[in-house]
Amino acid sequence: MKRWPSVRMTNPLHFLALGFGSGLAPKAPGTFGTLAAIPLVGLLSLTSVWFYLIFLVAGVIFGIYLCGVTAKAMGEHDHPAIVWDEIVGYAIAMFALPFEWPYIIASFLLFRLFDIAKPGPIGWADRQLTGGMSVMLDDVMAGIVSAAIIHLGLILI
């Protein structure tokens, strides 16, 4: 990685922050990071809802640190290659949903929509917060809104 000499894929923090390498995609790294989350969500769907929830909480807390450290190493706040926030955000969007294609796709599309458009409080979090908190929180919120819409749709149907 010539652009960021202090970032190394052999560093576990950088490896995770860059989404196992998916964030290095030359176009749409956030989308590739979200795609990288699908197998992880598939594994999480095999666990209990409590384990999944603990993973999400730990992923957010650890992600604040992880993304902050990697952003500092890259010399740019919320660099597009940092996609741990997309991975956790998508896992939030899929929380307590069946790991089946209609939910996988609906969650993917809604999460990407809210992550890119950043409406309302999602955009506020992205603009006003700093450090790893800013990197993580807008994606956490996009995941929560996506999950809420799908769960509400299931209740109404």
Q: Tell me the distance between the termini.
A: 49 Å
Sequence stretches where pLDDT stays below 50 over 5 or more residues: none
- Derived structural class: mainly alpha
The count of DSSP E runs of length 2 or more, i.e. the number of strands, is 0
Largest sheet at a glance?
none
* Helical run tally: 7
Helix content: over 70%
Order of helices and strands: HHHHHHH
Shape: globular
**Compute the gyration radius: what is it?**
15 Å
**Beta strand %:** under 5%
Task: Report the mean per-residue pLDDT as an integer.
Answer: 93
Q: Keywords, please?
A:
157 residues, mainly alpha, 7 helices
Layout of helices and strands, plus pairs?
Blueprint: H1 12-17, H2 29-44, H3 49-74, H4 84-93, H5 101-117, H6 120-128, H7 131-156
Explain how this protein is built:
The chain is mainly alpha-helical. 70% of the residues lie in helices and 0% in strands. The protein has seven helices and no strands. The protein has helices spanning 12-17, 29-44, 49-74, 84-93, 101-117, 120-128, 131-156. The termini are far apart.
Short overview:
The chain has 157 residues and is an all-alpha fold.
